[in-house]
Design a protein that fits this description.
heterotrimer; A: alpha/beta; D-Maltodextrin-Binding Protein, domain 2; 2 domains; five-stranded mixed sheet; three-stranded antiparallel sheet; 14 strands; 44% helix; 15% strand; disordered N terminus; B: mainly alpha; MetI-like fold; two-stranded antiparallel ribbon
């Protein structure tokens, strides 16, 4: 009667088969989770992929030590990527299954600390290795309202990577002051007239570099006065720093005045022979190209005051324990093991800056960290960054669309509006 | 042969001339036939309801709450009524973004469907070697992950040594040395359009070409032999048959292009996004997620849904009507 | 007459080849870059065709942790999603195209409405729901998520193809004495096949390249899909391995091409010749 039932049956058979496949797939993936839940307890650690490619042996060593100290607990390290690890963290916060340890960029910490995402580690602070000597800039990023929520992991500073052959041709030694560097840049410009060649390649809106000038001249970005943030870029000292930046840029860089510092990557410009020096993290030396690897060295960006370095932006990572973790003491112990002196020495050997001053060596990267600056520790600071307030200010100053006084006043009001929301 | 003698008493027959009323026994088969459409759509409805039911409810509720990172962690928001909606609707940026996105959508949809249809028609005219080659090229373009495609576009338009600047300068078309293809909002959105249209064309071509296979050769040859020019053949023979497909493609393209996010965001880059080049998808991301204001983000999502519904209502209604006529 | 036909075809072929060159250029650039040594990748002048091609990027990509897991997981997720979705969507499309029933308009509203929602807003609530069903960090959770995104437009597009089938064909099949469903399988299904193929290709590619939901829902790297694996190239805080990224992307595109080759024959031919008699 229903002659076509064979077709219907065929369809349902196909659907059933597909459903079986789905169930098989899900059980294939469900088994390990079930096993994990049933067996020993698990410590979930979120580290960035830099650890997986850079120092996996340090992670393995820490895991081994932890597991032998706490038999019955497995460490599950899940590597994250910078662009979306916060979206994922937000999802786990909403779902109530956060990791037990999470690596956070030092500029990412404040917003989450203010929202109560992390466990208070203040009482255990003394038990973390070298805590008395933690790098000030890095430790500050893990403190909110006087309480410690983050343990410094490692840092990186900014240095100048330069072509020894071109500097030699200009009879230049490592510059010890901003004025000397400017003079060298001018000489190199005269000797290398190729179109688009920069003695010092600096992207116009590289605010990490530009703000170093502000701090070098004694200014700052914003300060907290009686509970309210006040923008300080209009101050005389900050404006002097920005004027010095503009002078240096005009003398040394042929990059776009409105361009950003990672498009194109400075090391690409360098490897194409279009720059005599670049400013950026120390690891830039990895990618200067086969042709110039032998002729590349680094030095600390000099201050306008002779004999000292310009304060450099201290980038880095902290380790925190999400407040919802079930094993807060175990998590803290894992962090203790992973930031031990031996572990930090291992990080240092890979070119990073270790987290404590007593461990600091003499590499260019570490010397540059002696004077450093950090962004205002306001919970809305990331909104200032994402709103490109500083970049817009620099673009207007360099292109001449606004005077330094006008541009800084405008930026300050933006900063105050955003930080005080 | 009267329609009532067709086994199964089809729904087709339902629209025919009124039949003599006959009492029919309520057999299992008849119940099954009546229940057939519901059984057919049940799996889809159940899947969607099970997975998206709560999220949709949650999204709607969220749009009436103040819900930032603090509330996310506490897992509890505070009700603020229509505050989120009114703040978005009163935001002058929102109005500019809306207009800009509508213009952007119209341009992208028109270009994609226009060019895609022409290519689909071309595929019927070329030799099989070229057809295979062109289809292969389209599928390769389709298969490229958007993130990688953005990267290739960035390389091609790179200021320092991108392919475009290099070639145009070498061909002496002008001085494109260090020309920044992503300098102004117009150029940023144009480059974005080229990327999106390039990525959208393959689906249009494949779908239209599949639809063309439903157009019988005989009808076309008959029309051609009547002396009709290609445009008339298309208008009178091909287009009417393809109409449902064009309506679908247009409505889908409007929906997708209105909310597009990945390509413009990666091309323009967070550092250059501002009120003068934001599209709706990016506006949602910035206001809702970068500023971690999930309540506002939810309100913008709902508003986007309503706006897109209004924009595509014409096509959707035509689609539903065409279905009603045929059924 | 013949010569004119050949000349016209020659012109069309030339246009087609030109279009091919323009459309495939970015893909060519990706594949060519995968073979370039590092200094040519970011060289001062673009290298159209490397004279010193290298397979080191491919080797590095394959040796990256969890490459094969990524491919395997993507294949499982995508094939189950596409297979199930095509079946369910086809059934629902038949209901929409061929039946009149109460709630039809509501169903259409649901189908269209879902597609109009920006997906970004659904990530966190969806994660919460799936966590409750224990479907986080499970391929099945990703599969059902993808299905909810694929089903609406699949139903919509397939309905369009079903409507496009001339009524005469259906009625002719009916006159032949076969039952309705018999008519479907023997005459109409092959006619809808091109639409099914087009939709399945779209579903395949969309789910193959989907990123953010897979990223958020899957934790273990051994369970992650190929696109998540690919994101690790650009997710580091240091320099990006462009050669590796291009090689990885090229490798990941291969299953899509294979799938297309398998199903594309259905689009080339349809039962058009002589289908409508009289």
């Amino acid at each position: 009667m229903y002659g076509g039932s064979s077709m219907k049956a065929r369809f349902f058979a196909a659907a059933a088969l597909a459903a079986v496949l789905a169930v098989a797939a899900s059980t294939a993936s469900a088994k390990p989770t079930a096993a994990n839940r049933a067996a020993a307890s698990k410590l979930t650690v979120w580290l960035q992929v830099d650890a997986q490619s850079g120092w996996p042996n340090l992670v393995a060593a820490a895991n081994q030590e932890f597991e032998s100290k706490h038999p019955g607990t497995n460490v599950d390290v899940q590597y994250q990527t910078w662009p979306d690890h916060l979206s994922k963290f937000d999802a786990t916060l909403a779902g109530g299954n956060t990791p037990d340890v999470i690596e956070m960029g030092n500029t990412e910490m404040t917003k989450y600390m203010a929202a109560g995402a992390f466990a208070n580690l203040s009482s255990q602070k003394g038990s973390f290795p070298n805590s008395k000597n933690w790098l000030k800039g890095l430790a500050a990023s893990g403190i909110y309202n006087g309480k410690t929520f983050g343990v410094p992991y490692y840092a990186g500073s900014r240095v100048v990577t330069y072509r020894t052959d071109l500097f030699r041709k200009a009879h230049a030694k490592t510059p010890t002051s901003l004025a000397a560097f400017t003079a060298t840049a001018k000489r190199i410009a005269k000797q290398n007239k190729k179109r688009g060649f920069s003695p010092v390649y600096i992207a116009g809106t590289d605010w990490y570099f530009a703000m170093s000038f502000v701090y070098d001249y004694g200014g700052q970005i914003a300060t907290l006065k009686r509970g309210k943030w006040v923008g300080q870029l209009e101050s005389k000292k900050a404006q002097a720093g920005l004027a010095a930046y503009k002078r240096f840029f005009n003398a040394a860089s042929r990059a776009s005045k409105t361009g950003i510092e990672n498009r194109p990557q400075p090391y690409d410009v360098y490897s194409q022979g279009k720059a005599a020096s670049i400013v950026g993290p120390a690891w830039f030396s990895c990618c200067v190209g086969k042709k110039y690897t032998k002729a590349t060295k680094q030095f600390v960006m000099p201050s306008h005051v002779k004999g000292q370095g310009m304060p450099g932006f201290l980038g880095g990572s902290d380790l925190a324990v999400p407040a919802g973790s079930n094993d807060k003491s175990l998590a803290a112990d894992w962090i203790r093991i992973f930031t031990s002196t031996a572990s930090e020495r291992g990080l240092q050997a890979k070119g990073n800056i270790p987290n404590a001053t007593n461990l600091l060596g003499n590499s260019v990267n570490e010397r540059a960290a002696k004077r450093s600056w950090f962004v205002p520790t306001a919970k809305n600071w990331v909104n200032v960054e994402n709103g490109n307030v500083l970049r817009t200010m620099l673009a207007r100053i360099l292109t001449g669309k606004a005077s330094i006084a006008q541009a800084t006043a405008f930026a300050d009001s933006n900063i105050e509006l955003t930080l005080n929301q | 042969m009267s329609s009532s003698e067709i086994p199964g008493g089809t729904a087709f027959a339902a629209e025919a001339a009124p039949r003599p009323r006959r009492r029919r026994p309520l057999t299992f088969a008849r119940v099954l036939r009546g229940a057939a459409p519901y059984l057919l759509i049940a799996p889809v409805v159940l899947t969607i309801a099970a997975i998206l039911g709560y999220p949709l409810y949650h999204l709607a509720r969220l749009s009436f709450q103040k819900y930032g990172l603090f509330e996310l962690i506490a897992r509890h928001g505070t009700s603020v009524g229509w505050a989120n909606y009114s703040s978005v609707l009163h935001d002058p940026v929102f109005r500019h973004v809306l207009v800009r996105t509508i213009v952007f959508t119209v341009a992208n949809v028109a270009l994609a469907i226009g060019i895609g249809t022409l290519i689909a028609l071309l595929l019927t005219k070329v030799s099989s070697v070229v057809r295979v080659l062109l289809t292969a090229g389209l599928v390769l373009a389709w298969a490229m992950p958007p993130v990688v495609a953005v990267q290739v576009w960035l390389w091609m338009t790179e200021r320092e040594n991108g392919v475009f600047n290099y070639t145009l300068t070498k061909l002496h078309v002008g001085d494109y040395f260090q020309h920044d293809w992503l300098a102004t909002p117009f150029s940023q959105l144009s480059v974005t359009t080229s990327l999106i249209v390039w990525g959208a064309i393959p689906f249009i071509v494949v779908t239209v070409y599949a639809g063309l296979s439903q157009v019988s050769h005989e009808l076309i040859e008959a029309a051609e032999m009547d002396g009709a020019r290609p445009w008339r053949v298309f208008k009178d023979v091909t287009f009417p048959i393809l109409k449902p497909i064009f309506l679908i493609l247009t409505s889908l393209s409007i929906i997708w292009d209105f909310g597009v996010f990945t390509q413009p965001f990666l091309l323009i880059d967070q550092t250059r996004i501002n009120a003068s080049n934001e599209l709706m998808g990016i506006y949602l991301y910035e206001e809702g997620y970068v500023k971690t204001d999930f309540g506002r983000g939810a309100a913008i999502s709902i508003l986007m849904l309503l706006i897109v519904a209004v924009l595509s209502i014409v096509y959707v209604r035509k689609m539903v009507k065409t279905g009603d006529e045929a059924a | 007459m013949r010569a004119r036909r050949r000349r016209t075809r020659f012109v069309w072929d030339a246009v087609g080849l030109l279009l091919f060159a323009v459309i495939a250029f970015p893909v060519y650039w990706m594949i060519a870059s995968a073979f370039k040594p590092d200094d040519e990748l970011n060289g001062a002048t673009p290298t159209w065709f490397s004279l010193h091609p290298t397979v080191s990027h491919f080797r590095d990509a394959i040796n990256r942790p969890f490459f094969w897991d990524g491919v395997k997981n993507s294949l499982i997720v995508v094939s189950v999603t596409v297979a199930l979705s095509m079946v369910l969507a086809f059934l629902a499309a038949v209901a929409l195209a061929k039946f009149r029933f109460t709630g039809r308009k509501a169903f259409i509203l649901l189908i269209i409405g879902i597609q109009m929602l920006p997906q970004a807003g659904l990530i966190i609530p969806l994660y919460v729901v799936l966590a409750r069903y224990h479907q986080v960090n499970a391929l099945s959770g990703v599969i059902v998520t993808y299905m909810t995104f694929v089903l609406p437009f699949s139903v919509w597009v397939l309905r369009g193809f079903l409507l496009g089938i001339p009524k005469e064909l259906e009625e002719a099949a009916m006159v032949d004495g076969s039952s309705r469903l018999g008519a479907f399988s023997r005459i109409l299904l092959p006619l809808v096949a091109p639409g099914l193929v087009a939709t399945s290709i779209f579903a395949f590619i969309t789910t193959w390249n989907e990123y953010i939901f897979a990223r958020v829902l899957l934790n273990d790297q051994s369970k992650q899909t190929a696109t998540v694996w690919l994101s690790y190239f650009t997710g580091t805080g240091r320099n990006t391995d462009w050669g590796g990224l291009m090689a990885g992307s090229t490798l990941i595109a291969v299953p899509v091409i294979v799938f297309f080759l398998i199903v594309q024959r259905k689009i080339g031919f349809g039962l058009t010749a002589g289908a409508v008699r009289g």
